Amino acid sequence: MSSQDDQHTATEEAVGAARPTAGRSRARGRRLLRILLSGLLVAGLAFYVGSFLRFAATVSGYQNNDAARADAIVVLTGGSERVKHALTLLQAGNAERLLISGVHPETTPKQIVSSTASDLSLFSCCVDLDRNANNTLENASETAKWARENDFSRLLVVTSAYHMPRALLELNSTMADFDLVPVPVQTADLVFDRWFEDPRTTLLLAREHLKYLLAWARIAVMETSAP
C-alpha cells in the first residue's frame, strides 16, 4: 500500500472518529438546552403561583378604612357601589372634595344621584367629574393632575377590593409623593377570604392578577428606560 493510500485511510479513520464525538456534543447541547428551558418554565410557574397567592392574600387582607380622613377622595368607576361608597364618605365628612374618575361623557350628575341614592347638592359644591379616563392607567393620570391642581397631599382611594392593588400600583407610579389610603369596597357575591372555594372569585382574581402583572411590567420597563 502506498503512503498516499495510508494517508487517505488515516484521514477517513479520523473523520469517522470525529463524527460520533460531534454527535455526542450536539446531543449533550440539546439536553442542556432542554434542562435550561425546563428550569425556566418551572421558575416562571413558581413565580406566577407565588405572586398570585400574595395578590389574593393582599385582596382578602384589606381592612375597612371607612373611618380614615384625608384632604380628598378619588373613586375609580366600575360599578355604582364604588361611587355610592365614595359619596357616603364625602357626606360623612371624611374629606372635603371628591373626584369621580372615569365618568361616561353622557352621564349627568342627576343620573349618578339616581343610581346611588345620594344628595344632588354635593355635586354643586364638592364633587368633580373626570370624563377623560377610560382605564386604570388614565384614572391615575387624571387623578394626579386633579390632586396637584387642588394642592391635595392625602387621598382616600375608593375602588373594589380586587381592583385596589392595581389601582394603587398605577397611582403610586405617578403620585409617589402623595399619601394614598386604600378604602376597598367589598362585593357581596364574592368571597375573598376563601376564594379557593369559589370558582367565580378565583377566576376574577386570576384575571385581575394578570392585569396587575402586566401593569407592573410596563411600569418597571418605563422606570428602567427613564433617563
TrEMBL record:
The keyword Transmembrane applies. Coiled coil: none annotated. The chain crosses the membrane at residues 32-53. One of its GO terms (cellular component) is plasma membrane. The keyword DNA-binding does not apply. Residues 1-11 have a biased composition (Basic and acidic residues). It holds the Pfam family DUF218. Residues 1-22 are annotated as: Disordered. One of its GO terms (biological process) is peptidoglycan metabolic process. PANTHER family: ENVELOPE BIOGENESIS FACTOR ELYC, INNER MEMBRANE PROTEIN, PROBABLE PERMEASE. This is YdcF family protein. It comes from Stappia indica. The lineage of its organism: Bacteria, Pseudomonadati, Pseudomonadota, Alphaproteobacteria, Hyphomicrobiales.
